[in-house]
Design goal:
The chain has 10 helices and 16 strands. With about 350 residues, it is of the alpha/beta class. It folds into 2 domains: about 60 residues, no CATH class; about 210 residues, Vaccinia Virus protein VP39 (Rossmann fold, 3-Layer(aba) Sandwich), CATH 3.40.50. Strands 3-4-5-12 form a 4-stranded antiparallel beta sheet, covered by helices on one side. A hairpin with a 5-residue loop joins strand 13 and strand 14. Helix 1 packs across helix 3 and helix 4 packs across helix 5. The longest helix is centred in the last third of the chain and has 27 residues. It is globular, with a radius of gyration of 21 Å. The two termini are about 35 Å apart. The structure holds zinc ion. The site of zinc ion has 8 residues, from loops.
Length: about 350
């Protein structure tokens, strides 16, 4: 049963039950991709967007969870494979785990778990089978590769393996998905049931170190529930019986880290793990105070941006924006940017038009 992150009104860590500290509040926010038509704004779902750090495991997370039934539905479109940069990133990936003919380098890497559509379209070796490349019906892969949803994955986990009763997973990979899921208890239950001894669970997600360093507060919206560091990913791994055995920084999506987990006692962690954790501790990424400094810089950016937009309006200029992204939802709502400051937003997805 997934834990809730409130106990008697006091927020607690979704992984270890530690107290959450240094709440950074973005105020009342709309869901990033639940766009409404002009006449329907009164019916828009709003929630309190705030993040905080666990004082025990240092995992940064949202304080409030949006009911999962409201996200990734047919009226909450989530398009993958729209970024050429990300496609190139995934095209480059099989070089690390497959041979020149896209065959897995090891036979044990024979299955994988839900990933975003673009990752799966471009990276999945043909010899691999998958339980799903989509999270919910609203997720659209550019290559139309969605084959099965999480329901099938969960059914197979309940069986303790695949339909023949095997634990088939030598390799489970998640790209820009794992941090979306608040209820990690059940996810790790599934990974534990599916992964073979010696198997690898690998995930890549936006990195808190880059978010804090760049003050990229637009990474924070309803879909991104966790913001990992190597230190907090290691604590989470150990909590669920795994070890963080490797990390790799990636220059995509505003800065990400690819984390490699195995069952405890399977492999000594690479030096890169201790090195990244030492860098994080030197930067204070495990101190709640760091989040408060991040909040002050965020407020400064808000003042600068709104001052600039007001000044342009006073000069009689018109400002238009390109891209109705999830990230721009946080910027617009947090900074109070409406049609008076930005007259329109242009986007190439049909669902966004007119809303
Ligand atoms: Zn914790």
């Amino acid at each position: 049963m997934a834990k809730e992150n409130t106990e008697a009104g006091e927020p607690v860590c979704r992984v270890c039950d530690g107290r959450l500290r240094a709440r950074v509040d973005f105020g009342s926010q709309a869901l990033a991709n639940a766009l409404v038509l002009p006449g329907e704004t009164g019916q828009e779902y709003l929630f309190r967007l705030a993040l905080a750090m666990c004082e025990d495991c240092s995992l940064v997370q949202l304080v409030e969870e949006v009911p999962r039934g409201l996200m990734f539905r047919d009226d909450y479109p989530y398009y993958t494979s729209g970024s050429r940069f990300m496609i190139e990133h995934f095209e480059a990936w099989p070089g690390g785990c497959c041979d020149a003919n896209s065959r897995p380098r090891t036979r044990s890497w024979s299955r994988s778990a839900p990933t975003t559509g673009s990752c799966w379209t471009w990276s999945a070796p043909p010899a691999c089978a998958t339980w799903g490349s989509t999270l919910q019906p609203g997720v659209r892969g550019g290559g139309g590769q969605g084959r099965a949803g999480p329901q099938r994955l969960l059914r197979e986990v309940q069986c303790g393996g695949d339909r023949r009763g095997r634990r088939p997973g030598g390799f489970i990979y998640s790209a820009n998905t794992f941090s979306h899921i608040p209820y990690l208890d059940s996810v790790f239950e599934g990974i534990t049931a599916l992964l073979k001894p010696g198997g690898v669970f690998l995930f890549e997600d936006p990195y808190l170190g880059d978010i804090v360093r760049r003050t990229s507060f637009d990474q924070i919206y309803d879909e991104h529930f966790y913001f990992f560091t190597a230190r907090s990913a290691r604590a989470m791994a150990r909590h669920y019986g795994f070890e963080l055995v490797d990390v790799e920084h990636l220059d995509v999506h505003g800065g990400e880290v690819r984390y490699t987990l195995m069952f405890q006692g399977q492999r000594e962690p690479a030096e890169a793990v201790a090195r990244m954790i030492a860098q994080e501790e030197a930067a204070g990424l495990h101190h709640p105070q760091t989040l408060l400094g991040f909040e002050r810089r965020m407020q400064h950016t808000r003042r600068q941006l709104t001052d600039l937009l007001r000044s342009l309006r006073e000069q009689g200029r018109t400002v238009m924006a390109y891209g109705a992204t999830g990230k721009s939802t946080t910027v617009a709502n947090y900074c109070g940017i409406g049609p008076d400051l930005v007259s329109c937003v242009v986007d190439n997805t049909r669902r966004s038009r007119g809303s």
